[in-house]
Amino acid sequence: MQHFTASDGVRISYRDEGQGRPIVALHGLMAHSGFFEPQRSLVSDFRLIRLDLRGHGGSRGDAAPTIARLAADVAELADLLDLDDAIGMGWSLGASVLWRVLAGPARRRFAGAVIIDMTPRVRNDGDWTLGLSPEHCEARSRAIAEDFTAFAAAAGAAIFAQGAGLERHPLADWASAEFARNDGEAIGALWRSLAEEDFRPLLAAIRQPTLIAHGVESHLYGADTADHLAGAIPEARAVAFEHSGHSPHLEEPELFNRTLRAFAASLPPVRQSAITA
C-alpha cells in the first residue's frame, strides 16, 4: 500500500499499479480497495489506482467523514499524481464521491466515468422514487448504531445476486467479514452524509462520457435508476449485467473488464503525459 497525507492531516491509503490511461477505482460503503481485486488484470494496459476511501481499510483517523471530504481526498490524490485523461470508476458510495469530484476543479483530470449500481439520490422524497424509502434509510441508521457487526454481516452478503434458486456467492462470507472490520461510528456518519446528498443537479453538467453499469438482480436499485442516469448525464449509456446484484465487477468480472476495456477504447486517445506519468 502507498499513502499520502490529506490537507487536513488524515493519512489516506491507495494502490497504484500499471501504466497507461489511469483508472481511479472508488469502492462502496464498508468496502476497501481489495474489492477491485478482479480488476487487477487491467494493469497490463492501464494504470489502476485503488483508494481506501476515508473511514475504510487503511484510511482511518476521521470519526465523522462526509462525502464532500472523501471527494476532496480523491481530488487531492489526482493532483498529487498529476493524472491526465483518467477514467473515474465509482461503485455505490464511490459513485457519489466521483460525482462530487466531477463537479469540482479535478474534473479536468478525467476523460470518462463508470458508475456501478448507484442512484443520484438515496433517500426518496416527493416524486423521487428511484432510491430507498425514508423508512429504509432510517432502519439502516438504527441498525448501524445498534449492532454494526450484524448489519455489516448482512450487508456483505446482500451485495450479490440473491434471486430464487441462486447459490450463496463464494465471496459473500469474505465480504461480510471485511465489512465488519470497519468502525461503526465512521460508517454511520458516512451513511448519514450519503442519505442527505442529492446529486441530481450535478448530472447535466458532467461532460465526460459515462458508462452506467447495472446489476439486474440488484436489491437496491432497478433498471429504471440506470435509465434515469443514462438520460440525465449528456454522454451516458447504461449496460445491464444479467447475473449480478449490486456488484457486477465482482460477480461477472470477466464481462465487466471486457466492457470497461471497450468503453476506454471509445474515448479520445490519451495525451502523452498520461502515458509517461
Automatic annotation (TrEMBL):
Could you confirm whether the keyword Transmembrane helix appears in this record? no
Cell division as a keyword of this entry, yes or no, is: no
- Origin, by domain of life? Bacteria
Q: Which GO terms describe its molecular function?
A: hydrolase activity
The AB hydrolase-1 domain sits at 22-253
Q: Which InterPro entries match?
A: AB_hydrolase_1 (IPR000073), AB_hydrolase_fold (IPR029058), Carboxylesterase_BioH (IPR050228)
Q: Which UniProt keywords apply?
A: Hydrolase
- TM stretches of this protein: none
- What name appears for this protein in its UniProt entry? Alpha/beta hydrolase
Q: Which organism is it from?
A: Sphingomonas parva
